[in-house]
Each structure stands twice: as structure tokens, then as C-alpha cells.
Design a protein that fits this description.
five-stranded mixed β-sheet; 5 strands; 39% helix; alpha+beta
Length: 204
Amino acid sequence: MPDKPGSRSSGFDRRAFMAGAAGSALMPIAARAASEDARAPAAQDPSLPADVTLNVNGKDKRLNIDARTTVLDALREHLKLTGSKKGCDHGQCGACTVLIDDRRVLSCLTLALAAQGQEITTIEGLATDDRLHPMQQAFIDNDAFQCGYCTPGQIMSAIACVKEGHAGSEADIREYMSGNICRCAAYPNIVAAVKQAAPEIMKG
């Protein structure tokens, strides 16, 4: 507020004082932020190739791929393991299911970089010599597929379903296999296959 006529000016400018005080308070913060920015490493361009080692079906595979590559694309496009299918590519159909450290994983939503140091098992890694995995054999015995497109993902998910302890009843099997879509509607046969294979998988 300006001084009244005839009053003696104090010589104190409140606005200038507040502005100066605020600036002084912010200086250390700005200086610290600038210092931290200088120390931080430059972010790597995600489009540049990255060296990746994936353990797939018991063997290490070294790749130089785009850092944004998914496990599914690494398997299909780079390792030529085309058993895992690209269905919706949005994690909704289950056709791309693989096992990572014995857990079922949607490979279309999982970055290859994130899977390093873990064991990836695909449909190609189930059979031993000339003997099919019990779940593969059960799918054949129970005619649990028609077009076969979803079958690799169904089998991988079914193995995990059994190992998770969710194959005790038909209701449980349906519930815990519900993330895998079969457009041919072979669901009763899939349930029968899981029931057949479960005792042998749990015994082994």
C-alpha cells in the first residue's frame, strides 16, 4: 500500500522482500535437481538392439533384439519356435501361454528382457525323445482339439493348472482354464484331458 501523504516512508518494500526470499529458498532445490540430472545416465533408446539370453527348453539362446520384443515374438520370429500362437496379441485368448519357472505366463504381454535368468518352457519342450508329455497324450486320447490353433496354449495352461492344485474337480478345471479360449468349443474334452493327465503329472 503506498504511503499516505505526509507520512514518513519506512524504506521497506514488502513485495521485493517476499520475492527475494522465495527465490533464495528455491535455489538449493534447483541446484540439487540440476546436479542429479547431471549424474543420471542417459536413457537408452528402446528401439536400439539389446543383447538378451533366454533359457528356452533347457538351452540358452543368445539374441540381439529390439528391447521392446515380447517373449512370444522372440520365440516365433527369432528362435523359430512357432508352437506358441499369436491369437489376440492382447493377453485375452491364452493361445500364447508358456511356462516361465513353471508358472503360466502370457508371452504376448511379457518382455523378453524381463524373462532373462528364468526357465522358459514351450510346447516344443514337453516331449522327451519319442514319448509325449502326459497332457499332450491326454489331449489326443480325449480328442480335446479341433482346429488345433489354441491347443499349445491350452496344454501349457493345463499343466500349470494341475501343478497349482486346481484339477481336483471339473468345476475347478473349468474355472482355472477359463483364460484359454477355444473357438471350436472343445471344452468338455479339454476338461476330460486334464482329469486324465492330472494323476500322472502329480505322481511325476
